[in-house]
Specification:
The complex is a heterotrimer of chains A (852), B (125) and C (359). Helix content of chain A is 65%, strand content 3%. With 852 residues, chain A is an all-alpha fold. Chain A has two domains: 51-511, Cytochrome c oxidase-like, subunit I domain (Cytochrome C Oxidase, Chain A); 703-851, Four Helix Bundle (Hemerythrin (Met), subunit A). Chain A has a two-stranded antiparallel sheet with strand order 1-2. Chain A has a two-stranded antiparallel ribbon with strand order 3-4. In chain A, a hairpin with a 6-residue loop joins strand 1 and strand 2. In chain A, helix 7 packs antiparallel against helix 8 and helix 19 (604-620) runs antiparallel to helix 20. Chain C is of the alpha+beta class and 359 residues long. In chain C, helix 8 (318-326) packs across helix 10. The radius of gyration of chain C is 30 Å and the shape is elongated. The chains are: A mainly alpha (852), B mainly alpha (125), C alpha+beta (359). Chains in contact: A-B, A-C, B-C. At the A-C interface, helix 3, helix 10, helix 11, helix 12 and helix 13 of A face helix 1, helix 2, helix 3, helix 4 and helix 5 of C.
């Protein structure tokens, strides 16, 4: 990502103020900061958007879902404790294991990374908040709605029961009833929340750093989270596309996965695992990032092999996208495909292992201090390495033929998930708890919890490797005696309860009243990174002043750092206009580029989530009118949110940010964070579209008559007409942006309105193609695929149309002008992606049948 | 100092070698899948695909090697040794070079692993 | 700066050499216990053994044998690597250093993190790729071919002996020892998976596709197979027995299976046959030699000769037959066969005796 040069010229090292401001000035600054960042009280508390509040809610909910999923697991273990048990019926057991897996993967493992990042990333980067606070809040409310929806279903015997990966045709044709729909639509929420989080993390890590924190100085947590967020952009969309196809098949009978009408169950498996494998690394990387922050602190020295860890994170991120077929080794694919994915699955062990050796080197080179976080970190290493080794074993395809879908795999993935994610999270809980409420958790309880969880976990899951190889398949509600499974299962059940006891101790430690406990001292562990600047208890302003950074461990290396920070000797020590502000910097060298104003509390995000939620929930129950009303309401709320809360024209052009720095308050174009957010979101959107196109070519690969010859539709004329009209709409939008910049008002309005008209015409022409040629999407997979591509494109054109009209309205209302043109800048960017989508859709549906 | 200025820097080069690996991997997989699904004869022989994959491998390794050499030059700019943790454009430049070099090494190994597959597997079964 | 009690303790320990040595010894003892008990636990688990009729670790077939060998080598290697890494970690945590030692850092990271894994993984890749062609190659031309269709929640089996007539049966497989056999696997409803752990790896049965599994049994005996892909409510009860026999015994068995059913000998059995034909059983089941020609459910021509009923769920005893017919959905939740609890007990007994006699 190349950026514009610093407005003041090449970077130079900046020193803090040589003298502290007088005490009254400092006090006045603090008062203004406190007022600007005040946490709302009473029922208004729920309108907060500050990362501290939103992050706390996220953490509390994900830990609740961890408990929920854990209780479901205990129920499963009770049922499996002895052969032919009748504690849970088959129907109920199948719901329980499905919801257990789904809750743990979607409602705990991913959201906890979001939660931790929302709270701590800004603090680690010396920023006051994330760049899009209301987007995080919206993501949280969506997540809460989806989670409650899914978990609630089990109390109504309406839970999904297709396994957490929901293979059709079982889930498309053989499980009528609301469960699968709840899974599909419930997870749409989670997916929205995840993409929102990804936008925050990428922009936060790259653009919202303290001045001087060059790319080689950023905390390792930021690297890991950046990689995980980028992975989300490319991993979640295939699942979004697949879920859409599955729901449409269930609701309308379009046969994407129905072999009797040309569909193929394997398409779901490809789309799901394209998501599913990177997903587990999205879970693992931010968790091991916690270890990367904890180990240097307790080894009392900087991390060894910083660049190697960057290699590990980025390398794992990329390689993990080449593994997905290793979940499909037994589906009859050609040996050469199996070999390729086996090779990549083994290659990924190299970067995974490198970071572990970096931690070992750091420990070896330091003087290790014992503590509860380190204990959990050790436990995590012991467990994760074992899981990684069994992972390499199952990556070897011939062994996979025996281990797949047996309890060996259940053992493997619990080792990597609990070792690679849960134990680091527990370590993080004990390490970072003082930053949440200013007090430490109990060392004694922590040690007890560690031993219970560590011993219980191993007793529960180590035997499963043997159970699986002795022939016990997974997802079985019971088993007969005499096969050698009995004792092993009983041991696993006992271990599970010991593990549960350990988790209960941790929860007790987290939740017990700490009123009488004194506050912890500041920076209790003697760490070196910025999040530990926080006072105990913390103040709502996030950071007292935004520091200038010279080192990877500023608290260790920069002299008088804490004093300078406290006395406001750095940037933005004040909130003169009473606004919430943070600094936006360049990507590579963190040179300040903008003073970003951030929004305060609002209920808009809650309303938007409820309205969006209404659309999904009413859709699940086939209450179509209510669903569309909700959708319309959601669009209105979101437009209101954008209108009142974004691209606000500031009262002045520039602001004094301290230390002689003057920063603009309004930046548009490719330096602005809003533009970045649009770009990142559209990358994810384009990936979902590409997944649908992949579906088209997948069917071409497996069928000899796809597209059928002669082609029944959509023909050439209508798609070509659509292409011309929509490219015209795109071109006019781009020109309108240019004309707006030259302040040619009439041309701008004319351009946008004509563009809107072309958009309507083009969208209609696109829909006309399959409509006029009579393609019936429920009859066969070819028409269904054409229709889905056309509908996706048309929906995006419709959104683009709303955006064009929005720009007209903004300019009319004086909220957009030649100088202040964030709105049309971002809309033009959106239309670039629409243009790409249109070209690909037309090329595929009209062009490909000619050459196939 | 000109070549070290921020406007000449980019994080995209860091991703160059892994992207080449990804391209090589996808091309190999797609070539093999489409061949086996549509073009292989009854004996299901794969030697055309094996040749194609070896060509892709040569191209990929050349690309990765090229990026790796640029990275090495960045990394050995000036005189400082690892770790590149000073707050200077030189160290940032060296760090980016080193990380890119490491990623090139990993990508090269991963490409070779994929190529080894075609050494062993010669039919579509 | 000493900021907490534990830090103070550590600080004192560092200053006093005797205390440090004592602390080191205590730590050493404690740290040795971490991997030690894990090894003890693992060994304890192996005491029950690895055998069993459904065990991949007591292979009775050529393919399962190859995979088991691969498994043991990999497990040995994995244990060594795990011990080395954990041992190194514990050692690293105990070592107290003052100066940064870049050479040691590089040695650990490059040697341990890059070179050793790359070499080991390359070797493993080659070792792991090598068996793939043999495991996936079809059985030679002229081998016994068996088509198995997985249906919720039973197995439709059709033997296609070379140069012989196709032979329809259900829920059980018998094979001649030492001969290659080609399975052709299908499914009309949902995805199932065909898995006989003692003989070979598994292969999924996917609607709309045909998959293949070739294997060669090496030891006579009775083994058990299972459905290994979650396929609905009673996935856990979709299993089957596999008997591997000497070639002559197998030929005799196959010839016997090709015969139509014998007319019932005793009156009870005859009554049972009459009930079978009048209560609608013939709508779903086939019994060759009678008018019953239903194809929705399993072929019952020689059901009395099988080692189990209801797809590996119940033993083949008259009481079990009765229980099954009367309470299908209690034995196998959501099964498509209706429960005939409304029939009087004597009728159920007659049906059971009849079916038992279909040997």
């Amino acid at each position: 990502m190349t950026t514009d040069p610093h407005p003041l010229g090449p970077a130079k090292d900046v020193e803090p103020l040589t003298e502290a401001p007088p005490a009254e000035v400092q006090r006045a600054q603090e008062e203004r900061l406190l007022r600007a960042w005040k946490m709302p009280t009473g029922w208004r508390y729920w309108s907060a958007v500050n990362n501290t509040e939103v992050g706390l809610w996220y953490t509390v909910m994900t830990l609740f879902f961890l408990l929920f999923g854990g209780v479901l697991a205990l129920l499963m273990r009770i049922q499996l404790a002895k052969p032919n048990n009748d504690f849970l019926s088959a129907e109920l057991y199948n719901q329980v294991f499905t919801v257990h897996g789904s809750v743990m993967m979607f409602l705990f493992a991913i959201p906890i990374f979001e939660a931790i990042a929302v709270i701590f990333l800004p603090q680690m980067l010396g920023a006051r908040d994330l760049p899009f606070p209301r987007l995080s809040a919206f993501g949280f409310w969506c997540f809460l709605l989806g989670g409650v929806f899914l978990c609630g279903s089990i109390f109504f015997d309406a839970a999904p029961r297709g396994g957490w990966f929901m293979y059709p045709p079982l889930t498309s044709t053989y499980q009528p009833g609301i469960g699968a729909d709840i899974w599909l639509l419930g997870f749409s929420f989670i997916e929205v929340a995840a993409i929102a989080a990804a936008v925050e993390m990428i922009v936060g890590a790259l653009k919202c750093r303290p001045p001087g924190m060059r790319i080689n100085l950023i905390p390792l947590y930021a690297w890991y989270v950046l990689v995980a967020a980028a992975m989300i952009l490319f991993a979640f969309p295939p699942l979004i596309a697949g879920s859409m196809l599955l729901e449409i098949e269930r609701a309308f009978g379009w046969p994407f996965f129905d072999a009797t009408r040309g569909g193929d169950p394997l398409l779901w498996q490809h789309l799901f695992w394209l998501f599913g494998h990177p997903e587990v690394y999205i879970i693992f990387l931010p968790s091991v990032a916690l270890i990367a922050m904890i180990v240097p602190t307790f080894a009392r020295r900087p991390i060894a092999g910083y660049s190697w860890i960057v290699l590990a994170a980025v390398g794992t991120g990329f390689l993990s996208f080449g593994l997905w077929v290793h979940h499909m080794f037994t589906t009859g694919l050609p040996g050469i495909s199996l070999g390729l994915f086996s090779a990549a699955s083994q290659a990924v062990a190299i970067p995974t292992g490198v970071q572990i050796f970096c931690f070992i080197a750091t420990l070896a080179a330091g003087r290790v201090v014992r503590s509860v976080p380190m204990l959990f970190a050790f436990g995590s290493l012991v467990i994760f390495v074992l899981g990684g080794l069994t992972g390499v074993m199952v990556a070897v395809a011939p062994f996979n033929f025996q281990a797949h879908d047996s309890f060996f795999i259940v053992g493997h993935f619990h080792y990597v998930l609990i070792g690679g994610a849960l134990f680091p999270i527990f370590a993080g809980c004990y390490y970072y708890f003082p930053l949440i409420n200013g007090k430490k958790l109990s060392d004694r309880l922590g040690k007890i919890a560690f031993w219970l969880t560590f011993i219980g976990f191993n007793i529960a899951f180590l035997p499963m490797h043997l159970t699986g190889l002795r022939g016990m398949p997974r997802r079985v509600f019971t088993y007969p005696s005499g096969l050698g499974f009995d004792t092993l299962n009983l041991i696993s059940t006992i271990g599970a309860f010991i593990l549960a006891a350990g988790v209960a101790v941790i929860f007790w430690d987290l939740l017990r009243p700490k009123g009488k406990q004194p506050y912890s001292e500041r920076n209790p562990w003697g760490a070196g990174t910025l999040e530990w600047l926080q006072e105990m208890p913390g103040k709502p302003w996030g950071v007292r002043s935004i520091p200038e950074i010279d080192s990877r461990y500023p608290l260790w290396d920069q002299s008088n750092f804490m004093r300078d920070y406290d006395e406001g000797r750095f940037y933005l020590p004040d909130a003169e206009e009473g606004e919430r502000e943070t600094i936006v910097t360049s990507v590579v060298d963190a040179q300040p580029e903008q003073c970003q104003r951030l929004p305060g509390p609002t209920f808009i995000t809650l309303f938007a989530a409820l309205a969006t939620g209404g659309f999904f929930i009413f859709g699940t129950y086939h209450l179509w009118w209510l669903a569309f009303i909700s959708l319309a309401l959601a669009i209105c709320v979101i437009l209101y949110w954008l209108w009142t809360g974004t691209a606000i024209i500031p009262e002045k052009d520039e602001k004094e940010a301290g230390l002689g720095l003057k920063l603009p308050l309004y930046v548009s174009g490719s330096s602005s964070v809003g533009w970045w957010a649009m770009f990142i979101t559209m990358l994810a959107d384009l990936t979902a579209f590409v997944s649908l196109v992949f579906g088209y070519f997948f069917f071409w690969t497996i069928h000899t008559d796809f597209p059928p010859d002669p082609s029944p539709g959509p023909g050439i004329f209508w798609p070509a007409a659509a292409l011309v009209l929509l490219l015209g709409a795109w071109a006019l939008t781009i020109f309108a942006r240019r004309w707006n910049k030259r302040d040619w008002a009439a041309s701008t309005y004319a351009g946008l309105l004509f563009a809107a008209a072309l958009a309507i015409g083009g969208g209609t022409a696109l829909l006309a193609g399959p409509w006029v040629t009579g393609l019936d999407p429920a009859s066969d997979v070819y028409p269904a695929t054409v229709w889905i591509l056309v509908l996706w494109t048309a929906a995006h054109v419709a959104v683009g149309l709303i955006m064009q009209l929005y720009c007209v309205a903004r300019r009319l209302a004086g909220r957009m002008s030649a100088r202040y043109d964030i709105d049309i800048s971002n809309v033009a960017l959106y239309w670039h992606f629409v243009a790409i989508t249109v070209v690909i859709t037309v090329a595929v549906i009209a062009g490909f049948p000619l050459v196939a | 100092m000109g070549q070290l200025a921020e406007k000449n820097q980019s994080l995209w080069l860091l991703t160059g070698s892994p992207v080449i690996w990804a391209g090589h991997f996808m091309l190999s997989y797609i070539t093999a899948s489409i061949w086996c699904a549509k073009l292989a004869g009854p004996d299901k022989s794969l030697w055309e695909v094996r040749v194609a994959i070896l060509v892709y491998t040569a191209l990929a390794l050349a690309g990765i090697g090229f990026i790796g050499s640029i990275a090495y030059r960045k990394h050995s700019h000036g005189h400082a040794a690892l770790p590149h943790d000073a707050d200077t454009p030189e160290d940032r430049h060296r760090f980016l070079g080193f990380a890119t070099l490491l990623l090139s090494g990993l990508s090269g190994v991963a490409v070779i692993y994929s190529a080894l597959v075609v050494v062993f597997i010669g039919s579509c079964h | 700066m000493i900021a907490s009690l534990s830090q103070a303790r550590d600080f004192v320990a560092l200053c006093d050499p005797l205390a440090r040595r004592r602390a080191d010894n205590a730590r050493r003892l404690r740290t040795v216990r971490y991997p030690a008990w894990l090894i003890v636990l693992t060994t304890a688990l192996l005491v029950p053994g690895c055998g069993g009729v459904q065990s991949a670790l007591s292979p009775a077939g050529r393919e399962a044998g190859r995979i088991a060998d691969l498994f043991w080598w990999m497990t040995g290697g994995a244990i060594i690597v795990w011990l080395a890494v954990i041992g190194l970690t514990i050692y690293a945590a105990r070592v107290q250093s003052e100066a940064r030692n870049h050479r040691r850092d590089r040695f650990l990271i490059i040697g341990g993190g890059v070179l050793v894994p790359t070499v080991v993984l390359t070797v493993l890749l080659l070792y792991g790729l090598a068996p793939i062609p043999a495991l996936l190659a079809p059985a030679p031309e002229g081998s016994l071919k068996i088509v198995v269709s997985g249906e919720q929640w039973w197995w439709r089996v059709r033997y296609l002996p070379p140069g012989g007539q196709p032979l329809e049966m259900a829920n059980e497989i018998r094979l001649p020892v030492g001969e290659p056999v080609q399975f052709q696997l299908e499914s009309p409803d949902v995805i199932h998976s065909f898995w006989i752990p003692s003989l070979a790896g598994k292969m999924d049965m996917i609607p709309g596709r045909v998959t293949y599994l070739a294997l060669q049994p090496a030891k006579t005996g009775v083994y058990r197979g299972a459905c290994a892909e979650y396929c609905g409510t009673s996935h856990a009860m979709m299993n089957f027995y596999v008997e591997v026999m000497e070639k002559e015994d197998f030929s005799r068995w196959l010839a016997q299976q090709a015969q139509p059913s014998q007319p019932p000998a005793e009156t009870i059995a005859a009554r049972g046959q009459e009930l079978f034909l009048t209560n609608g059983c013939n709508a779903c089941h086939t019994v060759r030699g009678t008018p019953a020609r239903g194809v929705i459910g399993p072929d019952l021509t020689h059901v009395g000769s099988r080692l189990s009923i209801a797809a590996g769920t119940l033993p083949n005893e008259p009481d079990d037959f009765q229980r099954w017919i009367a309470h299908t959905t209690e034995v196998k939740p959501a099964v498509l066969m209706p429960a005939f609890y409304m029939l009087p007990p004597e009728d159920l007994r007659a049906l059971a005796t009849y079916l038992e006699g279909l040997k």
